[in-house]
């Protein structure tokens, strides 16, 4: 099926039907054959699907380069302000469909390949997912890059070119196992290696003050170790191919590939030990930080890509403008979470130590250039680093951080704004539990603007993690509610719905999300409801085929598809969903003849390798699925499916098939969420708490078109402050929940190991810090309201259509416009 519908592709269809030769198709076919022969080294008769993928990708890439060059030339010659987006993650997924769609070449490529006896869908399926992210943070970065290109904003995304990225998840006997995600095993046809773009990244050593001729002194960092950062560029094509930006990823290299003297002495392993240590930096995303070595590697990664990126953008600025004094006028740097927060100290080091600038103007430039996006309120996710580790690994940066802190605290004292109680709360050094550097505080002080990612999250930032800093600098925090690119999450992921929208609303809907509002009057039209339901049914049938192929579970497409897909974490409360699944299972078994709504529970997500409780939750989901799916009493009424190795491509298959979207995090703990937006865009109805962007989704789609349950943020705060994290009371007060806990305790779902889920039972009973038990009954009631709506198809499809119709505001194009106008101060085209 076509991934995108637009005027050019409609013309291709007309020509195909009339059997007229198409010069564009013929030219593209020849380009593919040329790449297959001279770049891949294959003949058409012996080529495999992957060979055709590489040849097609290279042919597409050739059509990007001229536009890319023109975009760069315009940015430089027109002296347009550039945006630099620093993110440890870029979850870009497969690029062939996205790029063909944005260039308007999907049908051209389909016909060209068909003429060669090749199926485009088979070719697209062999492209590996670029495993450069963990979840929402990395996917948001990818959406933002695509929207920046679509809006014509000169932007470069900076990150790490992980050799293996996030692990590939295998589920064996219900347990998660991690194996390397070798996405580069066959190369990457989209990227350009820039072997000439190399920057030294230094670690360790000592700092001395070198006297200068004018009587001052200059800090000189004598590093103990130097690693090279080598650039790889991937073009990011905007909608309709009008502008192309770049994703520049850094790969770590040792200055010398081998120590010959050591090798010649017979120590062959030792001769490349330094190389292994250097390359470990870009080997894998999020190495476990459960050990001191893991913590050090994580910090090395963060500094590595941040330093390389800052050095690179400084070189570019000097080449175009000649004077670093104007950096803030021509560059806007966005720090995506605290991972690149070391940029505050590193930019100061580069300006002061490397370019001889005085402290005060360097600090003004740093604060005028950097901006910081906060993504979490969870204390464990707000990065801090031990002072000892920082002093050993980045001694000059630690000096700079001390000085930033000193000058900041002194300025407040001189202004009469400092108190003994305030000082330890706003200091960059946390002295309460060992001396640690607060990276969020550092990013806040060094940023021009600090933004949250939903209205609720931003308000909570002001009231919690940055309460004291916000009181001192009340104009610094602003809100930029997240968004998603509709090109990927509607047009690419759901071509059936896209065709329906274009046929109903016209092609304007492809360019203007506000055009979706045209569906509102159609939401009660039985004929349109039938067409809307038909595209969902087709997507559910496709997902059912995928589930049968991957896990051998048969799903009924006529059942309600209830979907919970995201990173496995206790605050996201997959556990609450599983407990409700058990309760539903027990209810069906207790009254098998009752009118139970057929329901399919779909789970997917990865747990961090060292997160034992999250991995146990995955095991519980799979054990519940094993029991439920084998029980003939509930056959036809309940199925549970855990789909392994959740990634972008799997999400693109699941989201268009979802009837119900699970967004059930503990209120006040999810910064925003973007999965909630993707589901609603495709017409899934949300069941969720008033958390993150759920609040704004409710406001846009209407309170009558979403199922809200559970404690509010304020009520959660009161419960946790008052010691309400014990679940004993809630369990005792709810016979249904008590029955679920009894089933877990008795080993009903783990007869071979009856004590397997005792840690879950104990945590919920004695330390339910995510208030799963407190929200259980409210959640159960919300799910029964969902059942009631499902029994009324006209009401269900009206609500589903209204979700699609009213979600246009959550386009990442809107978010990026707000960044450009209010934070980056980058003029937009037109």
Helices and strands: which structural class? alpha/beta
Strand order of the largest sheet: 5-8-9-2-1-10-11-15-16
CATH architect. name of the largest domain:
3-Layer(aba) Sandwich
The main pleated sheet reads as:
9 strands, mixed
Kindly state the percentage of residues in helix.
Answer: 40-55%
In the CATH hierarchy, what is the superfamily of the largest domain?
Glycogen Phosphorylase B
Compute the separation of the termini in Å. 34 Å
The CATH topology label of the largest domain is Rossmann fold
Number of strands: 22
Supply the number of helical segments: 34
Beta-strand content bin: 5-15%
**Over the alpha carbons, how many angstroms does the gyration radius reach?**
27 Å
Mean pLDDT: 95
Low-pLDDT stretches: 1-7
| Highest-level CATH class of the largest domain | Alpha Beta
Q: Give the overall silhouette.
A: globular
Write down the domain tally.
2
């Amino acid at each position: 099926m076509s991934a995108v519908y637009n005027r050019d592709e409609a013309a291709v269809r007309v020509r195909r039907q009339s059997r007229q030769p198409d010069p564009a198709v013929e030219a593209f076919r020849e380009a593919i054959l040329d790449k297959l022969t001279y770049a891949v080294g294959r003949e058409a008769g012996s080529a495999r699907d992957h060979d055709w993928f590489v040849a097609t990708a290279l042919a597409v890439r050739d059509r990007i380069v001229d536009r890319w060059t023109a975009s760069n030339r315009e940015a430089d010659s027109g002296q347009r302000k550039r945006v630099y987006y620093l993110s440890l993650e870029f979850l870009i997924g497969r690029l062939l469909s996205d790029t063909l769609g944005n260039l308007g070449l999907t049908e051209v490529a389909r016909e060209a390949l068909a003429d060669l006896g090749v199926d485009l869908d088979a070719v697209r399926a062999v492209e590996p997912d670029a495993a450069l992210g963990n979840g929402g943070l990395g996917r948001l970065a990818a959406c933002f890059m695509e929207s920046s290109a679509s809006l014509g904003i000169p932007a470069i995304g900076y990150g790490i070119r992980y050799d293996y990225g996030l692990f590939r998840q295998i589920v064996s006997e219900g347990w998660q196992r991690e194996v390397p995600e070798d996405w580069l095993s066959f190369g990457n046809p989209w990227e350009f290696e820039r072997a000439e773009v190399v920057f030294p990244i230094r670690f360790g050593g000592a700092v001395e003050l070198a006297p200068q001729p004018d009587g001052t002194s200059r800090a000189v960092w004598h590093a103990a170790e130097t690693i090279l950062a080598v650039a790889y560029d991937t073009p990011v094509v905007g909608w309709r191919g009008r502008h192309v930006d770049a994703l520049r990823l850094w790969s770590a290299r040792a200055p010398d590939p081998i120590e010959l003297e050591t090798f010649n002495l017979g120590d062959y392993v030792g001769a490349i030990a330094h190389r292994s240590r250097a390359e470990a930096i870009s080997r894998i995303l999020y190495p476990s930080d459960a050990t001191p070595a893991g913590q050090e590697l994580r910090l090395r990664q963060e500094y590595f890509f941040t330093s390389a990126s800052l050095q690179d953008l400084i070189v570019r600025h000097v080449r175009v403008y000649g004077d670093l004094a104007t950096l803030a006028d021509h560059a806007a740097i966005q720090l995506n979470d605290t991972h690149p927060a070391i940029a505050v100290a590193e930019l100061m080091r580069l300006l002061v130590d490397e370019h001889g600038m005085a402290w005060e103007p360097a600090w003004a430039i740093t604060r005028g250039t950097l901006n910081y996006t906060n993504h979490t309120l969870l204390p464990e996710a707000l990065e801090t680093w031990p002072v000892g580790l920082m002093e050993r690994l980045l001694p000059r940066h630690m000096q700079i951080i001390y000085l930033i802190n000193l000058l900041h605290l002194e300025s407040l004292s001189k202004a009469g704004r400092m108190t003994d109680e305030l000082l330890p709360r706003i200091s960059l050094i946390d002295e309460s539990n060992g001396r640690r550097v607060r990276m969020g505080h550092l990013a806040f002080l060094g940023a021009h603007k600090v933004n949250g990612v939903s209205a609720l999250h931003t308000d909570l930032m002001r009231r919690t993690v940055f309460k004291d800093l916000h009181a001192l600098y009340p104009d610094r925090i602003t809100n930029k509610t997240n968004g998603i690119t509709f090109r990927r999450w509607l047009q690419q992921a759901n071509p059936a719905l896209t065709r329906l929208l274009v046929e109903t609303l016209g092609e304007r809907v492809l360019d203007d999300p506000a055009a979706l509002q045209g569906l509102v009057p159609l939401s009660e039209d039985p004929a349109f409801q039938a067409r809307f339901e038909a595209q969902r049914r087709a997507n559910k049938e496709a997902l059912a085929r995928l589930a049968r192929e991957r896990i051998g579970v048969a799903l009924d497409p006529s059942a309600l598809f209830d979907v919970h897909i995201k990173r496995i974490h206790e605050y996201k409360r997959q556990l609450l969903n599983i407990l409700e699944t058990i309760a539903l299972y027990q209810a069906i078994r207790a009254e098998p003849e009752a009118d139970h709504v057929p329901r399919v529970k779909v789970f997917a997500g990865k747990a961090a390798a060292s997160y034992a409780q999250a991995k146990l939750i995955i095991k519980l989901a799979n054990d519940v699925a094993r029991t439920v799916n084998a029980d003939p009493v509930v056959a036809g009424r309940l199925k549970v499916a855990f789909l392994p190795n959740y990634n972008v491509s799997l999400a693109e298959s699941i989201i268009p098939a979802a009837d119900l979207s699970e967004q059930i995090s503990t209120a006040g703990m999810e910064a925003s969420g973007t999965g909630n937006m993707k589901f609603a865009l495709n017409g899934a109805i949300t069941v969720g708490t008033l958390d993150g962007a759920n609040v704004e989704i409710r406001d846009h789609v209407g309170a009558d078109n979403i199922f809200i349950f559970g404690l509010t943020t304020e009520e959660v705060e009161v419960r946790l402050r008052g010691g309400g994290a014990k679940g004993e009371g809630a369990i005792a007060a709810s016979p249904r929940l008590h029955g679920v806990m009894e089933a877990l305790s008795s080993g009903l779902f783990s007869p071979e190991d009856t004590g397997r889920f005792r840690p879950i039972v104990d945590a919920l009973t004695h330390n339910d810090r995510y208030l799963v038990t407190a929200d259980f009954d409210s959640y159960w009631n919300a799910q029964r309201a969902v059942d009631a709506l499902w029994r009324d198809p006209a009401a269900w499809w009206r609500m589903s259509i209204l979700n699609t119709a009213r979600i246009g505001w959550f386009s990442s194009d809107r978010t990026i416009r707000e960044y450009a106008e209010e934070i980056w101060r980058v003029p937009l085209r037109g």
